[in-house]
Specification:
The complex is a heterodimer of chains A (about 325) and B (about 625).
Chain A (H helix, E strand, L loop, with lengths): L1 H5 L19 H12 L9 E5 L14 E4 L5 H11 L4 E7 H7 L1 H10 L3 E7 L34 H7 L4 E6 L3 H13 L4 E6 L11 H4 L1 H7 E4 L6 E2 L5 E6 L2 E6 L14 H7 L9 E8 L5 H16 L4 H5 L4 E4 L1
Parallel strand pairs in A: 1-2, 1-3, 3-4, 4-6, 5-6, 7-11
Antiparallel strand pairs in A: 5-11, 8-9, 9-10
Helix pairs in contact in A: 2-7, 3-5, 3-11, 4-5
Chain B lengths: L8 E3 L2 E9 L4 H14 L3 E7 L14 E9 L12 E4 L2 H7 L8 E5 L5 H6 L16 E5 L1 H8 L7 H5 L2 H12 L5 H10 L4 H20 L6 E3 L9 E7 H16 L3 E5 L6 H8 L7 E4 L3 H13 L3 E6 L1 H17 L3 E7 L16 H6 L9 E3 L5 H16 L2 E7 H5 L1 E5 L46 E3 L14 H16 L10 E3 L3 E8 L3 H13 L4 E6 L1 E3 L5 H5 L2 E8 L4 H9 L5 E5 L8 H13 L1
Helix pairs in contact in B: 1-6, 6-8, 7-8, 9-10, 9-14, 11-12, 17-20
Classes of the chains: A alpha/beta (about 325), B alpha/beta (about 625).
Bound molecules: thiamine diphosphate (TPP), iron/sulfur cluster (SF4) and magnesium ion.
Amino acid sequence: MAEAQALTKKDFKSDQDVRWCPGCGDYAILNCVQGIMASIGVPKHQICFVSGIGCSSRFPYYMNTFGFHSIHGRAPAFATGIKAANPDLSVWMVTGDGDGLSIGGNHMAHILRRNVDVKILLFNNEIYGLTKGQYSPTSPQGLKTKTSPMGSVDRPMDPVSFALGCGATFVARTIDTHLKHMEQVLLAAAHHKGTAFVEIYQNCVIFNDGAFDAFAEKTVRDDKTIDLRPGQPMVFGKSLDKGLKVDGWEPRIVTAAEADVWRPDTHSPGPAFVMSQMDSNPAMPRPLGIFRDVAAPIFDAALHEQIRRATSTKGPGTLEKLLHSGETWTVR
Amino acid sequence: MNPTRERDVQSFESVVIRFAGDSGDGMQITGNQFTHTSAVIGNDLATFPDYPAEIRAPAGTRPGVSGFQVRFSSADIHTPGDQPDVLVAMNPAALVVNIRDLKPGGIALVNTGQFSDSDLKKAGLTKSPLTDGTLAGFRVIEIDINKRVTEALKGTTLTSKEVQRCKNFYTLGLMYWLYNRPLDTTIKWLEEKFAKLPALAEANKLALQAGYNAGDIHELFQGRYEVAPCSSMPPGTYRNIMGNDAIAMGLVAGAQLAGLQPFLGSYPITPASGILEALAAYKHYGVITFQAEDEIAAICSALGAAYAGCLGITTTSGPGVALKTEAMGLAVSVELPLVIVNVQRGGPSTGLPTKTEQADLLQAIFGRNGEAPIPVIAASTPSDAFDAAVEACRIAVQYMTPVILLSDGYIANGAEPWMLPRVEDLKPFPVKFVEPNPEGGFQPYARDAKLARPWAKPGTQGLEHRVGGLEKAHLTGNISNDPDNHEFMVRMRQNKVMGIRESIPTPNVFGDSTGDVLVVGWGSTRGSITSAVEELRKKGRKVGSLHLRHVWPLPKDLDKIMACFRSVLVPEMNLGQMARVLRSEYPQQNIISYPKVQGQPFRTTELVKKIESLLEK
Ligand SMILES: Cc1ncc(C[n+]2csc(CCOP(=O)(O)OP(=O)(O)O)c2C)c(N)n1
Ligand code: SF4
Ligand SMILES: [Mg+2]
């Protein structure tokens, strides 16, 4: 670990020119990720970034670690294969709202339910960036894009709700404009054992600029977002005077003193789901932070444990043994 | 028990039996047991299971008929035979579906216990084929197996339904008596199979023995038959092997010879699932199996594992290959070793899932976007599938490339005796990963003499590098849009794959090396072609055959071999795909296509007739 401790953010910058549009939210995320990599105590040759296709998925090229820029939507499968092949690696996956939830929705569901020890960063800009601005599965209804000139008729999906429904063991949300918050959430994700799913609201300046301004713009942010912090009261507002209380099935805005304490580790993901569904109610603050954090058996570890067990009961397989398995006879 | 009476024992060189019944009648087990016993006593063998696409089609109907054909012989054989000598029919549907294949004068053993009016109706019959002349010209043996097995198991605690499920072992016993086979291999199998259900083991053993005794006591047959052990089998240790199992073993062996841990990403599909099932049981060989959510995830996980330093493997059949196509292109681009197994079945689309076909050849060679060359090799028999799988692994790791291994339904489920290779005869091809912190830095797209790029495992210090599907600059592997570099890289990948030619042998010609007709085959047509050529040469015809294991790139000097014959015949279970490839590679040769697309393998007689028609010209 000596090498790891000496690492700085600079060590994680690759020699490739970053090619995102000036002002793109992806820069802030890259910057933050390079920063936390230096502090998680893993040597860079033990780190692998995997992505699909999209602006966001160019990410691995800019990290001076191992990296695999794969095909559209399939990054979860690549990450699963890499992690299964070598559970010692720290595997990170970068995807977009189209990559991870449209073409790759199936794979996303399965990596989450399996609890493969992979950290997933889903850059949600509510648009297809790389293909120049078509609506995505997270675009709000009515969004006018090149392929929805009269406004999209699709109902959007909520990535956090989706991940919770898949049984994800760690689910969080952060935003490109709030570096400090992003850093805390990503560090928590890095330390989670099992799949960590982090939705990152990311501004696409070119095709969907200001998508999150309604709640994330600096002047309104304190009143219109709430940070879900494990074990802390659910309070928000500029002077932290407001709180959330879940009465029955519906969350309600109350005074800070009446706020419930947030628990991301309840047996049921129900409370986290209730929080994630506040998105569609403009009267409620937009939740960020850690929705869910529970422990569960890890897929890649279990795979190798079975191999270890089979080898210890049956003895290691050799070529000789392989060929002579089954009933044989000899012709002289 | 009465002593065996002295009756005629007639000897045959080779016999073909087809067991046919309802898919619930256990005909596959019966056939497999007969095969196994015959293997152990030293016959040469070939089998052809033919089962319905539905797991349980309505009982007693024609679509529900399941068949298992086995040919056992005292001489070297190559096919399960064109026509059965004996047809065992457990119900009317099995009888009418199969009777047209029975050899004239052949034995039809019919279970009359299943011939009530309602049984006939289920088979779509108004009259009984036993009495309407259908069986004219055959030796018909009628026996009420339902009743016999009920009597035999009278003393047991089994329900009448369970008793009826032992019918197949009664039938097997009869056949064991008729062909003079020992019961012990099957008895041992029953004891192991039903170790936890001793009552069932006992009942099936009783049924087996009762069937055997019935042959003796009831004078059902005029005599017994004998098929001596095959004396021409080369000395060695043998086992009976099915194609899917051979591929699974070949992949494990290939990984060991390369010094790698194998990772299989797969999604179940007929007829390839058997490979995934077999490999899942090889955990003590270090095999990682991952049953993915679909074929796309299957191949992508395998390619991810290959990046991480495993031998990546994915197995599937036609529709699954279609889904894997995009990832195969990525494998070409990132130049990582990956073995893609396609156990072909009838297409297009879902097609004929349980039937065989070779119609994915052009898809394998050319079926990707962009210039995406992938070497393709084809297994030709169940035992050859082992060697073909090892060869696929060798090419994949030595050339850092995806490799497609073609098998088909006929190979997958067919079985034959396999002379086990000696471990010391299997040549290792150990992989050398890039060492940590190479002097002068690391270039992920540098090339060796074979044009293969280096394989650098994540986790190795100083080798941090990125790969992906965007075009890469020569040497550095950085993203490049440079037009000249693109053409350079396209040609580099093409030359690398075509260079595999240098490492593969030109196949030997079987039969005459100059003459009138050269039969060129690939894949599972091998047995029928060999038999046809043997038969014609016995008649003094000047014919030879050549069988391609490496179907892309093709081996060297094929044109020289073809030029020694007046014409070249290419039989294949598609509309002439290999013929098309050969014509474009060797336009000066007289290449004649002989297609068959019925979901069934070629019969030797069909081939003999076709070749003779060319000889007459
Ligand atoms: C199989 C396939 N289909 C379509 C595309 C085209 N494509 C590339 S990226 C993309 C959408 C990307 O959107 P998102 O994942 O949200 O990433 P962003 O660019 O917004 O970061 C599409 C449709 C492709 N590369 N591959
Ligand atoms: S198109 Fe949008 S998401 Fe893509 S790089 Fe430009 S600003 Fe970023
Ligand atoms: Mg997007």
